[in-house]
């Protein structure tokens, strides 16, 4: 459900709602303002729905840059846009780039890392947040590690099969300006997006 309030954690650092009430609660209000976020997982884990929830998490819709899928109403088609030109378009408080994987594959890891750091520097400096989708199974382990190190916040979505049961889990691997939760959060994929379970599993 959209939220139009700005939360602050216990240290007084402003937080921006993620669009997922349960995740906001676990993060002390949302993502720390002025950070880059990488959402990592298979396309089947609901990562695109989570990105859309963040995009529309308050009354002031953010900017969603679509590189490698269907461009929906309100999104910006940047399939043929070079990363250096994309950098000039990235402005605002709430940015989504879908996906970082396409940039790595088409332009290389160095270009992708520049976009993840310097490319969103102005957004972060003004207190905004930029969320990048990254898909597993497409990159070398070294590329993944370099992205993990460059991101301020790194979240993994996992999907496991146990017989005829599907288990989906959200893991907060890295969180700038805060303690990293030592829990795995089960979640469900609903028609409107992701919903965190009320229970969490200790890692």
Descriptive overview:
The protein is of the alpha/beta class. The chain has one domain: 3-Layer(aba) Sandwich (Rossmann fold). It has 7 helices and 13 strands. Strands 4, 5, 6, 7, 8, 9, 10, 11, 12 and 13 form a 10-stranded mixed beta sheet that branches. Strands 1-2-3 form a 3-stranded antiparallel beta sheet, with no helix packed on it. Strand 1 (7-8) and strand 2 form a beta hairpin.
Task: Reconstruct the topology from this structure.
Blueprint (H helix, E strand, L loop, with lengths): L6 E2 L5 E3 L4 H6 L4 E2 L3 E6 L5 H9 L7 E4 L9 E2 L5 H7 L4 E5 L1 H8 L1 H8 L4 H5 L3 E7 L5 H10 L2 E10 L2 E11 L7 E8 L2 E4 L4 E2 L1
Parallel strand pairs: 4-8, 4-9, 5-6, 5-7, 7-8
Antiparallel strand pairs: 1-2, 2-3, 9-10, 10-11, 11-12, 11-13
Helix pairs in contact: 4-5
